[in-house]
Amino acid sequence: MNRRFIISLHLYLASFFAPVLLVMATSGLFYLLDMKGNVNASVIYEGDAKGLDLGEATSGDKVREWFESNNVDYSFEYLRGNGSWAVSRPTSQTHYLLSVEADKLTVTKRSPDFIYSIIELHKGHGPLWFRYFQHFMAVGLLFIVLSGFYLGITSPVLKKPTWTVTGAGLISLIVLALI
Fold it and tell me: What is the DSSP letter of 34?
């Protein structure tokens, strides 16, 4: 690959991924600042579990049957949980929390706000297609960083500053990780 092609690819990928990287950086900052967003939760069912075993239901089939038999408008890809509770995914959108205690089922509809939604996307709890996009973005980000480093160290003018700044970044990482 010639230098001009690497520069073009570096810039195109950086431009393409800039919006999602800004959202990921913003959501990470919100999370670190303990601004985790809010969820509007409302109980839509509280009653007999009717034999619904959430340990068996994490595949989603039993829960889908329950939603249909109770005329609940639902949409989910899969469930996460243990034997006493399950949450439908993606949690970046309206989702459901199901909990069973002593044969009593509680189903809570949860609607996240924008901050909660982007944090859930950041954590990989979004729709399956978005998670695949995140994989693609991660590979793209690796290329962007490595190609930027390569372009810096192969440029006579930028070689020394690139090594200096990269070394400072590496030392900062090591020192801060060990504190």
Answer: T
* Count of domains for the chain: 2
Nearest residue to 120 (alpha-carbon basis) of 163, 84, 88: 88
In a domain, 132, yes or no: yes
153 and 170 assigned to the same domain: yes
- Residue-wise pLDDT tens digits, 135-158: 999 999 999 999 999 999 999 999
Hey, what are 158's tokens? Answer: 């930028």
Greater model confidence, 59 or 18 = 18
pLDDT the model gives residue 59:
66
pLDDT at 19: 96
User: Same domain for 82 and 139?
Assistant: no
Q: Which of 173, 163, 155, 164 is closest to 10 using CA atoms?
A: 155
Strands (E), 39-162: 39-48, 78-81, 85-89, 95-101, 104-112
Q: What is the pLDDT of residue 52?
A: 79
**pTM over cut 0.90:** no
Token duo for residue 140: 């793209």
Same domain, 135 and 72: no
Domain that holds residue 69: 39-112
For residue 25, the SS3 value is: helix
Residue 89 domain-assigned? yes
